[in-house]
Amino acid sequence: MTRGLYLLFAFVAYAIFFATFLYLIGFVADLPQLPRTVDSGPASGLAMALAVDLALIALFGVQHSVMARPGFKRAWTRVVPPPIERSVYVVFASLALIIMFMFWRPIPGDVWRVENPIGVAVLWALFAAGWGIVLLSTFLINHFELFGLQQVYLHARNRTAQAPRFRTPFFYKAVRHPLYAGFFIAFWATPVMTYGHLLLAAGMSAYMLIAIRYEERDLTGLFGEDYAQYRRNVGMLAPRFGRRAH
Asked: pTM here?
């Protein structure tokens, strides 16, 4: 019974994540079909919009970074059963984004507006490529473990996960954090950059740069010299030409 409930919870958590991820794409793209996007929603004064939007970005960043740290996980699994710890994280991460969607305050005014059809097409192609890189990167590092499905599956089969191995598949041979690189592209590649979109892109970019520092500290602690050597040879978000990873 418990294993079945864990499986059910993990699949529900994954469904919530997937729906939230799809909405995030439309939110950043400012799709007119959506009730709330980065550039559509309740109007408010500039000071209020800045305060609310920065608080929403901070909420997202704190949730993602704090709950992902090994020390938090050790304490958290005294309360949450270990097989569903990652699924609970996925639910909280999705809720942080849903709260952002609900309460985001647009800030009108154009930073840039590209009207040339070729330029618009190129920027939308980059936007799509960014999200594609994000999704593909999750599969390169084990999509189902990342979103909690593997943990409950192994628990249901009374099996334990293999010890993590240091690997550098595909994108990871060129950059250390292709998933974050994909998000950078997706947030910044737009033919119409409003002040609200700029705040979102800049805020999320700042969060990712901070998150990378903590993540790399954890990875160095986990993989030791293998990761340290990889870090020296491979660029963080863009290829570092002239060097070769080992």
From this structure: 0.94
